[in-house]
Structure formats: structure tokens, C-alpha cells
Amino acid sequence: MRVKVISRSTDDFTRERSQDLQKVFRNYDPALRTQEKAVEYTRALNAAKLEKIFAKPFIGAMDGHIDAISCMAKNPNYLKAIFSGSMDGDIRLWDIAARKTVCQFPGHQGAVRGLATSTDGDLLVSCGVDCTVRMWKVPMLKMVDTNDAIGDASQPSAIYTWKHAFWGVDHQWDGNLFATVGAQVDVWDQNRSEPVSSFEWGKDTVLSVRFNPGEPDVLITSASDRSITLYDLRMSSPARKLIMKTRCNSICWNPREPMNFTAANEDTNCYSFDARKLDEARVVHKGHVSAVMDIDYSPTGREFVTGSYDRTIRIFQYNGDHSREIYHTKRMQRVFCVKYTYDGTYLVSGSDDTNLRLWKSKASEQLGVLLPRERRKQEYLDAVKERYKHLPEVKRIVRHRHLPKPIYKAANLRRTIIEAENRKEERRRAHRAPGSMPEQPFRKRRIIKEIE
Amino acid sequence: MPTERGYLEPEGLEKTYRFQQDSIVQEVDILSSRKAFDMILPLLGPYTIGYTKNGRYMLVGGRKGHLAMMDMLNMELIKEFQVRETVRDVAFLHNEQLFAVAQKKYAYIYDRDGKEIHCIKEHGKSLKLQFLEKHFLLASINSFGQLHYQDISTGEMVANIRTGLGRTDVMRVNPYNAVIGLGHAGGKVTMWKPTCVKPLVTMLCHHGPVTAIAFDRSGHLMATAGVDRKIKLWDLRKYEVINSYAARAESLDFSQKGLLACSNGSQLEIFRDTGGQDYKIYMKHRMVKGYQVGTVLFRPYEDILGIGHSMGLSSILVPGSGEPNFDTFVENPIETSKQRREKEVQSLLSKLQPETIMLNPNMIATVRPSRKKEKKTKKEIEDEVEDVVEAAKNTEMKKKTKGRSKASKRAKKREEEVLKAKRQLMEQYKESDGRPEKKQRVSDEVELPKALQRFAKSRQ
């Protein structure tokens, strides 16, 4: 007969030296692991709870301004830096890591309405209600040296005065042009003291402007006549105009899909459009209870952050109709501008209470360098939460967010009002001849018309 | 490194069941030959055994109170002590640090050093103990036929189920879905979970009392043995007999690789699956006449069968019964103390709730199957009512002559028809507000048969 019995010699299974790691043997047979789904579900539940325990998104506030912050600018070359302009004309350059002012740029005699940096990082353009556009050289050495708490003030490299107050500025990607908006849209060259070209469509104030990151000649503006206008610099007249029912406060292009943009509207929603097809919004992002003041996309293009008049910041997925996250603090008043940092990890919000606040984009993320083991564990927990997030217990925990009472009540009120309106709509439709009252899709509802 | 499964191959006309243990022990290597032993402990009664999940430690309990724990890797005795009481069953908890003993009146939990940690009075006179390691539940069946589930990590008694089927000491946990199977004196086998007062499944297995029950690791097979001299193999998906053997068994056990061991008196038979759930005899072992085998248990991750009998313990080699390749993160037969502590913490963190025990453990996170009778939505009910009302309105009214067909009368008649039709429908769809329906009082004299009519309560 031939016989063989399992015999394991301990030499094969023990480590050779005490400095070695213990040997690990795997057998992936599912029969060895019973009730795996239940185990995974329990782990998902625990992971959801832990995520809530570790959710501490607020990092710190940057104090220094003495008036409300009206605009911010970031630069792709320097991750640590952010510029902020306030309502009293004070422009500061902040070091985000130290949360201190590196440099101040005094000069404006009124509110600074727009800040923009050129793509190579050397130039900062600011415009304000005092009808001036100022260009500043960004001090590169000062960026590295963070020991100086407040650097000495710089002189602007150029000051251009013009006929009307300015409401916004944006610099072209990879180009020398920048555009300012106020009574009309003016396109400037860095070296000229007069605008190279001007566009006007209608007599209303234009509020904000953005250049397209993919097409350097396309820009989009939003005006107080509730319109969004697309311009192409290669043509001599504006390209397209979309009129909505309420005004858009701010627009941002999706950096990964440059044909799409999202507009932050006064009617508390954000509308994502495809610039080629403006008759219907692609997604309507609902969530805020008061006007949305500013919007900025993450560099991944997969989510964006909005700051609103209702003192909260919300983070939305690029195609999500409800926010994934909401940040609020008792001390943070009306949020006027938000920015996503260029590494996608942090958000900066500038608000009415003269502070810039630094937040984490993923509230329970562990920052810093993670060990590979920690990273793998985190990835596993994320994956297992993703798999079971539709189950009621897990969903309840993952979805839960604490809202400040006024926001909660306002949201409930809005919901009641909207539901009442919907019910009335339905009844009107039911009592009419079928087909005489067509249903309008929600994505079209707030658009009045599109003009060529 | 992957190891090969053990085998016992006959040559020529030999049959595997003719091979005796001595010849097998002579053929294998020294390390393995040391693993087969006979320990004669004649004084302290029939012995029950228990192994930890990784097969490294063995716990031995003699009926007369002898308890001993051994490390089988180094073949050394860790602790041996006397409790001076009847010991009916022993079971390891999640690792070798704690074990539970079913003693004369209560169940006790002891430490590795023999210290008594807990005396659990709620279990009563428990006859059998089983530990559900993923849920940290200690299940016991006592002499009144009560099934207790206790959470060992928090100490709370999760369930106390009165089976209602009398005293039984045949209990096994199904490793696939953590369901407890009990065998009863009427030939029934019932399966239980802690959150349900009624058994999940009741099967009539034998014509007499069930003497032994065992579950296969894959969860599809159950072996039961009864006083009617039959060992039956059941398919647990269809609840049908696959195979039936004429044999007696006082205890049954499935190994990791699907071998079935049956003990009967002083004889042992081991069956092996030769494809298609056709179990044929693989090995036989005869002990000294007079030794009554009480428990057989396959040692995990080794080709060894542990036998507890009336005169002590034995361990025999059964090639091909154990799983040769272990997974360090599931069960590790060569654990260091650090690994053991880590594993304890990890398994406590992913401790399953007793509600997750179900017959089909893969049903978690699947879509709930729709109810057979779909409840009609409000809209559908409204539409139906409308249709019925329309139909009732359009019914042909008989034209009456001689001034009896006044317009008002016709209108009234039409309204009555509509109301009648509506009433019928509304009774069908009447929503109860959660309260149980009021029982009809026995008060209608017309309904009762004549003999009972004097018992009808007259309605005042």
C-alpha cells in the first residue's frame, strides 16, 4: 500500500530569524470561509460608524482680513498658496500649510471684486469697484520662506484705470489675455493698458467670467439679466446666450470635461450644462436652502464644492443631484467664495466673517503619509462600504449629517412647498384633457430660452 | 507552501478497509507515527473530546470530572485538573484560552490555567455544548430540552428557546450557516436559530430516536443515525435522503475533506465519497472489546481522528481526511501568541449579530423576493373602484310602466346600485389598522347547531 499523511515540519513554517516577518500562508478556498457575506456586512457597518467617528473636516481658519472676503484665486504652480481679496481692498497671499499671510497687496480703494492668476504663476490680476485693474508680480521667494509672518507690501507692476466698476476677472489658460467684466466684457492683454476687445450683449451688468480650460478662446459669463453667455474670442460677437428664470452667481468649467460647466444659481440649485447643447441642463444639483454664491470644481473633475448664502458649503458629485457632504460651523457666516485646492484634498472657503477656512475634502480621511498596510485597510473598508451601502442600517449611518437647526427647518419648509406645488400640478393635469398640459422635465424648467 | 492531501492507496486486490492502524503507522514518517496514540485512563469514565478550530489544542473531559488540555503540536500537557463533578461535555471557546464545561448542575467556563472564570447558571443541566465562533455564541441543550444561546463576549443570554420536544443530547452546529441541528427521541431532526422561537426546519428522519447527527463543512450534507439501525445521508437543499446505510452509529463526524466517521460500540467505520455523494467504506478500526466509543472528532488540518471512549482516548491516522493547506488569516495551526491576540481582536471586531444566522447565509444583501400576492397600490384600487362605479352606472334599468318609473325613483335606484358595487369592493380592500380582527362573538343563534343554541349569548 502507499500511504501519505499530512505532516508539517515546524521548520518550514517558522521564520528563520527573529527580525523576519512571520510567514503567511494563504488558501483562497471559499469553503474555509463560511458566512462571508455576513462578516462583510458587519465590517461595512463598523466601517461606516468609524467613518463618522473620524469625520473632522475643519482644519483651521486663516485670520487677518478686516472685512468680508469677496474673492479668492489659486495658482496651479503653487499648491500651498491662495490669494484672497476682501471688501475693503485688501489682497493677501496665504500659505495654507502655516495658515498665515505671506504677503499683502494693498492698493485697491474699494472692494476687490475679482482675482485671477496667470497660468505660469508670475502674475496676479485684481479688479475692483474703484474701476481699476491692477497687476501684481507674485513674489516667488516669499512662497518658500514661511518664517515671515507678514511680508512687506509689494507695489503693483501695473495699474489700468477704466470707465466702469469691475465685477470679475479671469485669466486665460496658457495665454496672455485676461478678461474683466462689469458693464461689459473686456478682454485685455497683459502688456496693454486698454482692452484689446469688448463684447456686449444687452445692457445689464455682467457678474462673473470664466475661461474654458480646454479651449483657451472660449469664455462664459453670467449676467444680472439672468443669462449665461458664451463668447469665443476668435469671433467678433458673442456666441450663444441662455436665459434662465433666476440669476447665476458663478460658473465653473469642469476641468476634466471642458465642454461641461456648472452654474451656481440664485434659486438654490446648481445647473450643469453641456456647452454645446444649452437647451436642457444635464444635471440639477439640489441641496442648498439659500442662494448659491460660488462654485469650484475639484481637479479630478469628479466633484465640485459650492458655497452658499445659507452659511454652508456643500460638496456634490459631478453627476449627483444631492450633495455628498455638507460643512458648516457656527462661526462661519455667509460664504462668498470657495476654492478646491489643486491637489483635490482641501477646500478653502471665504466668508462674511472675514475668515478663510480650510476644510478637508473627505471628512474622515487620514492625512499625511500612510503605511501601505493602512492604505490597503482603508481601501478595503471603502470597498466594503460601497458594496453594502444600500442596506438600510449602513445607509442610515452613511447618509446621516448633522444640520444646523435653521438649515434643517428651511430645508423641510422647502420640501413641503415643493411637494405642495407638485401635488397641485398633478391635480391640474388630472383635471384637464390628457395631453393639454405637457410635463416639463425638471432640467428644462428653469430655462427660459436659448438665443443664438 | 501548498501541501498535498494525504492518501491511502491499495495495490492490486487489496481493499483500503482491510488495512489496520499498525500497518499504516509503520509506513508513515516518524512525526506522523507519533500522532497516533492510545491513552488508557480507566478510572475516570467515558471521555469526550474537543479540538480548537485550528486543531492545535485538544480538550479532554472524563465523565467523573477529569479535565485536561493538551498542546498537540508539541504533545505536551498544558493543564490537568479535577472538578469533582459529572462532566457531560466540553467545548473550546474562540481559542484555547477559554473553554466551557457542562458539569453536573451548571455550565462553567475555565481559563487555560484551570481557573474557574464563570459559573453560568442560566443554562441549567446542559447536556451538550457547541460554540458558534463567528457570533461568539455558546449554545447548549439541557435536560429539559431547552436551547440556550449566550453571547460570550458581552455575557448576555441571547435566546432561551423551549424546543418542546423533550430531552435530547444530540446537538450539532452546522458550520456553513451556524444553524443548530437537534435530533429528538421521536426521530425528528429540527434546526434552530437564536432569533426564532420555532424551528426553521423539522424533518422526520428516523423511525426511532436519533442517536447522532453531523454536518458537512460545505453545508449540503447532513448525516443522521438512529436507533432503527440506519445511517442516512441527507441533502440539505432538497431535504431528501441521498443514501441510507444499514449500520448503527453512536456518534458521527464529517472531516474537512468530507470523510464520515461513525462509531458503534468499540468499532469505528470511516466512509469516503467516491464521487456523486456515493459514500463507500474507506477504513475500519476496531478497539479492544469492551471499550465503548463515545465521541469521534476529526482533528482540523491533520489526518487524525480523535476518539473518546470509556477507557480513555485514542487517536488514529486517517489519511486524506484533513485539509492540507491552511490560511493564516482564517485558522493557523502554528500560531504565535501575537497572532492569536490579533486574531481575537479582529474576530471580535467583526463579530456577527445573532440576527444574521439564517438557513441560506448568502441571502444577505440580495433583493428581497416579492410577495406572492401583490398588494394593490392605492392608485390601482382607486382605478378599480372607478371602473366598477362606471359599470354600475351604465347598467340597464328596467323600464317600469304605470307611473312607477319616475325620474327621481330611477336616480335613487341608480345611486343604490353604485353604492352596492362600491361597498363590495371596499370590504375587500379594507385596511386594518394593525389590531387583530375582533373575534365574532358566539351570539348568533342562527349559526349554531341546535344542540349548542342554548350556549349562545343573547345580545342585550
From TrEMBL, chain A:
<keyword id="KW-0677">Repeat</keyword>
<dbReference type="GO" id="GO:0032040">
    <property type="term" value="C:small-subunit processome"/>
</dbReference>
<feature type="repeat" description="WD">
    <location>
        <begin position="105"/>
        <end position="146"/>
    </location>
</feature>
<feature type="repeat" description="WD">
    <location>
        <begin position="62"/>
        <end position="104"/>
    </location>
</feature>
<dbReference type="InterPro" id="IPR019775">
    <property type="entry name" value="WD40_repeat_CS"/>
</dbReference>
<dbReference type="InterPro" id="IPR007287">
    <property type="entry name" value="Sof1"/>
</dbReference>
<dbReference type="GO" id="GO:0000462">
    <property type="term" value="P:maturation of SSU-rRNA from tricistronic rRNA transcript (SSU-rRNA, 5.8S rRNA, LSU-rRNA)"/>
</dbReference>
<keyword id="KW-0539">Nucleus</keyword>
<feature type="domain" description="Sof1-like protein">
    <location>
        <begin position="361"/>
        <end position="447"/>
    </location>
</feature>
<keyword id="KW-0853">WD repeat</keyword>
<feature type="region of interest" description="Disordered">
    <location>
        <begin position="422"/>
        <end position="444"/>
    </location>
</feature>
<feature type="repeat" description="WD">
    <location>
        <begin position="285"/>
        <end position="317"/>
    </location>
</feature>
<protein>
    <recommendedName>
        <fullName>DDB1- and CUL4-associated factor 13</fullName>
    </recommendedName>
</protein>
<dbReference type="InterPro" id="IPR001680">
    <property type="entry name" value="WD40_rpt"/>
</dbReference>
<dbReference type="InterPro" id="IPR051733">
    <property type="entry name" value="WD_repeat_DCAF13/WDSOF1"/>
</dbReference>
<feature type="repeat" description="WD">
    <location>
        <begin position="328"/>
        <end position="369"/>
    </location>
</feature>
<dbReference type="Pfam" id="PF04158">
    <property type="entry name" value="Sof1"/>
</dbReference>
<dbReference type="Pfam" id="PF00400">
    <property type="entry name" value="WD40"/>
</dbReference>
Automatic annotation (TrEMBL), chain B:
<dbReference type="InterPro" id="IPR012952">
    <property type="entry name" value="BING4_C_dom"/>
</dbReference>
<feature type="compositionally biased region" description="Basic residues">
    <location>
        <begin position="399"/>
        <end position="412"/>
    </location>
</feature>
<dbReference type="InterPro" id="IPR040315">
    <property type="entry name" value="WDR46/Utp7"/>
</dbReference>
<keyword id="KW-0853">WD repeat</keyword>
<dbReference type="GO" id="GO:0030686">
    <property type="term" value="C:90S preribosome"/>
</dbReference>
<protein>
    <recommendedName>
        <fullName>BING4 C-terminal domain-containing protein</fullName>
    </recommendedName>
</protein>
<feature type="domain" description="BING4 C-terminal">
    <location>
        <begin position="281"/>
        <end position="361"/>
    </location>
</feature>
<feature type="region of interest" description="Disordered">
    <location>
        <begin position="390"/>
        <end position="460"/>
    </location>
</feature>
<dbReference type="GO" id="GO:0000462">
    <property type="term" value="P:maturation of SSU-rRNA from tricistronic rRNA transcript (SSU-rRNA, 5.8S rRNA, LSU-rRNA)"/>
</dbReference>
<dbReference type="Pfam" id="PF08149">
    <property type="entry name" value="BING4CT"/>
</dbReference>
<dbReference type="GO" id="GO:0032040">
    <property type="term" value="C:small-subunit processome"/>
</dbReference>
<feature type="compositionally biased region" description="Basic and acidic residues">
    <location>
        <begin position="413"/>
        <end position="448"/>
    </location>
</feature>
<keyword id="KW-0539">Nucleus</keyword>
<dbReference type="InterPro" id="IPR019775">
    <property type="entry name" value="WD40_repeat_CS"/>
</dbReference>
<keyword id="KW-0677">Repeat</keyword>
<dbReference type="InterPro" id="IPR001680">
    <property type="entry name" value="WD40_rpt"/>
</dbReference>
<feature type="repeat" description="WD">
    <location>
        <begin position="203"/>
        <end position="244"/>
    </location>
</feature>
<dbReference type="Pfam" id="PF00400">
    <property type="entry name" value="WD40"/>
</dbReference>
<keyword id="KW-0698">rRNA processing</keyword>
